[in-house]
Write a structure and sequence with these properties.
Layout (H helix, E strand, L loop, with lengths): L27 H26 L6 H8 L3 H7 L3 H22 L7 H18 L1 H10 L6 H26 L9 H20 L5 H20 L2
Length: 226
């Protein structure tokens, strides 16, 4: 907010001249909020068009028009259309993972816990399978700013899985010589391989979860046992 020094308002003889109300220039907080609002409108517009038209047929120009921003503004928030897809999916995946861990069956063994988490993710992919397939195809090697955010989210997810392995070690369910983070990397690789089997058309999304991923995780779990 702007500051007004004392005595800055001059008085004419016999009458007071009220100071004109001033509108404070937006501070950093206002600009940050405006940027977040713009990002949200672009994200929502991209999601709407990806689901309505399909990822391949949606254009960044159409996203800009739907979000009511200049086309150049879209590229402030995403490097290209693939990075725009990362922007859209980042928030959906983050929310799904948070909800899955919030409802995690803490008293269950490791395998049911892992299946609980991945079942939530597969259910999310199943809501819009064509957009999800585009994401699974584009994610490896994603390097735009939103791709980097997706990579950071993935690393955070790996650490959350590693924490489940560590808890299983504390229960005596997993060998004490197992590196929890290395185990988490193996588990994630099995998850992504199951997604690729669906992307390649070898199995349905339902079958990619069960039996493909379920059996692979069960085999991995046997190898982790104490």
């Amino acid at each position: 907010m702007s500051k007004v020094s004392k005595g800055s308002a001059k008085r004419r003889k016999g009458a007071a001249t009220p100071a004109a109300p001033s509108t404070p220039a937006p501070g950093h907080g206002g600009r940050a909020q405006q940027k977040l609002d713009t990002r949200r409108r672009i994200r929502d517009a991209a999601w709407a068009l990806f689901t309505e038209l399909g990822y391949d047929d949606a254009t960044t120009k159409a996203v800009a028009e739907r979000a009511e921003v200049a086309t150049g503004t879209v590229f402030v928030h995403a490097r290209d259309k693939a990075d725009l897809l990362m922007l859209v999916m980042h928030d959906r995946i983050a929310a799904t993972v948070d909800a899955a861990f919030a409802a995690l069956p803490r008293k269950e063994p490791l395998l049911p816990q892992l299946l609980h988490v991945f079942q939530r993710l597969f259910a999310m992919y199943g809501e819009q399978p064509l957009v999800s397939q585009a994401f699974v195809k584009a994610f490896p090697g994603a390097s735009g700013p939103n791709g980097e955010r997706m990579n950071a989210l993935t690393f955070a997810f790996l650490h959350r899985i590693a924490a489940l392995v560590r808890d299983a070690q504390a229960r005596g369910e997993v060998g004490g010589d197992i590196d929890p983070l290395a185990a988490a990397h193996n588990i994630f690789a099995l998850y992504f391989a199951a997604l690729l089997s669906w992307l390649s058309g070898f199995v349905t999304l339902t079958a990619a979860l069960d039996p493909v991923l379920k059996n692979a995780l069960a085999l991995q779990h046997r190898g982790l046992r104490a």
